[in-house]
Amino acid sequence: MTETIRQPVKKNSIKDLPRNVWAVGFTSMFMDISSEMVLNILSLFLSNVLGVSTSIIGLIDGIAEATASILKLFSGWFSDRIGGRKWLAVLGYGISAITKPFFYIASSWGLVAGVRWADRVGKGIRTAPRDALVADSVTPQTRGLAFGFHRAMDTGGAMLGILIAALVVWLTQKNDLLLARSTFQTIVLLSLIPAFLAVLTLAFGARDVTAKGKRDAPRISLKSMGKPFSIFLVIVSIFTLGNSADSFLVLRAQNLGLSVLGILLMLAVFNLIYMLVSTPAGSLSDRVGRRRLIIGGWLIYALIYFGFAAARSSWQVWVLYAAYGLYYGLAYGSANALVADLVPENLRGTAYGTYHAVIGLLAFPASFIAGVLWQGLGNWGGFGPSAPFLFGGGMALIAALMMVFWMPKLKSQ
């Protein structure tokens, strides 16, 4: 009788990650430093300096994100077709970097909308090929760790960008309630440095991965990507309909008395928690399975949104927003890694494009629903500031239950 000896599962380390993952990680870190410096105060610039209404601000964001979502689908498909990821991603980062200086001279909401749209075009081109490049560069055993590390670097950049913006606000206008044009322009100029560092890092640091075997020209078809991926996409769609823009969380914080500087510092704490959780959570998903981390993250999301609905003071918002980083750290990178687990290698770019496109396109109705629940429509005054968070928490619970009872388990998990 032969006895089978079970080898202990090796705990992977970020030191084992290949060059491409590090290059993509630093690229995302630099670009997020730049983006978060500007985008977190862009709505304040539109409102405080240019006098733009909230409906126009929402329209600018909605069109920009919808454009990015459609491009993610086609850029992912195109990267599969040409068998290359890197230079598409470099192009996308380059477009975003080149457009940022135009924020400095913006004097009308139309110009801001054009720059914002161009920036999102860059994001739409780069996102799916970048994620596919990460997936191509690692083994299934380190996929969760790789995506968790990438999210940690990305979020670390976001935290640094917010802190730099907060420092500039403090030095130039202290605790003023309204954003000044000169403050915004100073932040835009500083944001150009990390933006161009991001492009250079990816261009000189990453290498395309040679395809294993022949890659046939892919078709954009859910059937070709398999039933498990289609099921996951449906479940993610349910969750996303309740996942309104984080600007509603910021508005809720302001609704409960937080200042602009206080909100920026709260966002920095959120990103710190997100950064610290992402890498160990990704590594854990390699050992216990992605779906458990995603389910856990969505349950935490539901509790946090119910908490926002019940919150009555600013300190409660601080605690809840910090805990919000746990949801992102557990679920975001794990979901990205699961996409690669579910589809054939030659369709990864198309799959990532489809996944990001669905999330991006549904984000617009999700935010519209949240706005209507909060403030109503026409003569109807809505249900008040708690309503969108009750709705979001409920949708997260439904999605988590669907992951438990409907999502097929992979053999490796």
Offer a quick outline of the entry.
This protein has helices spanning about 20-50, 55-80, 85-100, 100-105, 110-135, 145-175, 180-205, 220-225, 225-240, 245-255, 260-290, 290-310, 315-340, 350-375, 385-405.
Strands, helices and their partners?
Blueprint: H1 19-49, H2 54-82, H3 86-99, H4 102-105, H5 109-137, H6 143-173, H7 181-205, H8 222-225, H9 227-241, H10 247-255, H11 260-288, H12 290-310, H13 314-342, H14 348-375, H15 387-405
Helix pairs in contact: 1-5, 1-6, 1-7, 2-5, 2-14, 3-5, 3-7, 5-14, 6-7, 6-11, 6-13, 9-14, 9-15, 10-13, 11-12, 11-13, 12-13, 12-15, 14-15
Low-confidence stretches: 1-9
| Strand element count | 0
- Helical coverage, percent range: over 70%
Order of helices and strands: HHHHHHHHHHHHHHH
Number of helices: 15
Structural class: mainly alpha
> What Rg, in angstroms, do the CA atoms define?
21 Å
Mean pLDDT, nearest integer? 86
What is the 3D shape?
globular
| Gap from first CA to last CA | 29 Å
Beta content comes to under 5%
The biggest sheet amounts to: none
- What oligomeric state best describes the polypeptide chains here? single chain
